[in-house]
Amino acid sequence: MRSSIFFLPLVLCVRTLESAKILMSGVFGEGSHFTALVPIGKSLVNKGHNVTFLISDEYSYRARDPELSTIFEFEIFHYNDKTLNAREFFRGYEKIGIEGSNGFLQLLQMYKIGRRIQVDICESVLRDDDMMSRLASMDAIVFELPWPCSIFIKSYIERHLNATDVRMVLSSATAPVPAMFLMAGSPFNPSYQPASYTSYSSSMNFFQRITNGVYSLVLHSIMEFIFNNAYKHTVEKFDLHENLASLSTSQKHIDLFLTNCDFAVEFPFPLMPNVIAVGGLTARPAMPLDQELEDFMQSSGKHGVVVFSMGSYFASFTTYRPDIMNMILEVLSKLPQKVVMQIKDPSLYSLPENVKAMTWIPQNDLLGHPKTKVFLFHSGNNGYLEALWHGVPMVVIPIFGDHIDVTVRIVSRGLGLMIGKENVSTDYLHHQLQEVLSNPAYSITAKRLSAIFRDRPLGPADRAAFWIEHVIKHGGKYMQSPAYDLSFIQYHLIDIGVFILVVLCMLLYSIFILLRKCVGHMNGNQSKGKTD
């Protein structure tokens, strides 16, 4: 009886969970950041929860999609600035990625074009009183890393609309982002953890470790400065929690972190319990193709099919870089394989007979088809994990952002080869494609790692849904790192180091004084002996 009374308060403090209301925000509703959240949303709906997606009116077609509209509800926000909108935002990304070189400068350009629109659109959402009133009923908010407006939505509805205990879940569809792990309180060791956009693996030489350490520190400092400078006035204008305009303090409002990676192919590194690896969110068993596409696949015979896609964000690759596109088509025309290609405007090119061009392709279903031999793509993280799930080797053309990080993992694990957009040629293209097509080592490695990747008790979307349910019921404070409560000096043991240094100096000084006195005493005795 006494034990029952003892456990009663514990039972009462657990939030009951029947049908929670969950808001999901995937960067305006477009691209891989949106599609990576959809499987999580479906899993939550299957568990009996109500899921609402927050999207821009520029992508309101999502709310009319026959499949999505029957599963989810949608909140559509409006942004009235005609000079800069979400579509211009993504076009800017495309232009920088396709025309520029990968690296740090490209990253700074990305932040420059993203800063204004991200802040302005966020403030337009916060000013929509009717929408904010509806969002005040949410039990949890799941948002993608590139658009942190959801943190401000949570603060607004808690401070001004009496919302309580709104759980926050940060998700990242990209390759592992050290900045997110630092936000979660997980340690980052630059001696074996490559920083974003460095093109390093976990095996670095002396000079690479120097570069990686300095680069990671500089990158995090710049991101902290940009985030603080961008959202400081938003926090003041809408009377939000004062610590929200800083990456280093806003993480205290986040209960759970989801990262779209898997250690079957990832460079190993430590994670705090509030960080859950859910790699392969968009990967699933292949569905049957429509008859026309199936007939094309079967017509490839023993040679099989090459699948080519540059993804939703970089579909304009085919119009921005016609020189590379013509090279690719020339190389593909010489292959015995058939090719299924995603291309934004097929009418711009004279397509070889062995190429079937489509404005949209069922990518996951094509990768799961037994006739598919190689995946030629832009090295996006979702496509990478889909190809891995189905055991398909890859040839990649990294364009932008985390593409170079994904490429390093593909090449270092023996899953495929890279084609650099800066030094591309028909001979180079043909060699890389032919090597992966003809060398069975790539296919064997892909199938071996696929078996490891798929050997999990829960699929990634179901695993993510489980942990979202968990933090809605229990919160995530108990999983938070103690690093949250430590200053920079305390976390890096600088105070301990200084203390040890001071004690050591005092000890050495004491020894020095003692030795000097001993020497003086000995010299005094010798002088006295001579006098006697």
Structural account:
With 532 residues, the chain is α/β, with parallel strands linked by helices. Helices cover 48% and strands 11% of the residues. A 7-stranded parallel sheet has the order 3-2-1-4-5-6-7, with helices on both faces. The chain has a 6-stranded parallel sheet with strand order 10-9-8-11-12-13, with helices on both faces. Helix 15 links the parallel strand 11 and strand 12 (394-396). The longest helix has 38 residues, at 494-531. The chain is globular, with a radius of gyration of 28 Å. The protein starts with a helix and ends with a helix.
Q: Key terms for this structure?
A:
globular, 11% strand, Rossmann fold, 532 residues, 48% helix, 6-stranded parallel β-sheet
Short account of what is shown:
Helix content is 48%, strand content 11%. The protein has 532 residues and is α/β, with parallel strands linked by helices.
Helical fraction equals 40-55%
Q: Describe the main β-sheet briefly.
A: 7 strands, parallel
Task: Give me the Rg, rounded.
Answer: 28 Å
Euclidean distance between termini CA atoms = 93 Å
Note the overall shape.
Answer: globular
CATH T-level topology of the domain at 291-454 = Rossmann fold
The fraction of residues assigned to DSSP E strands is 5-15%
CATH homologous superfamily heading of the domain at 291-454? Glycogen Phosphorylase B
Please state the second-level CATH architecture of the domain at 291-454: 3-Layer(aba) Sandwich
**What structural class results from the helix and strand content?**
alpha/beta
The neighbouring-strand order within the major sheet is 3-2-1-4-5-6-7
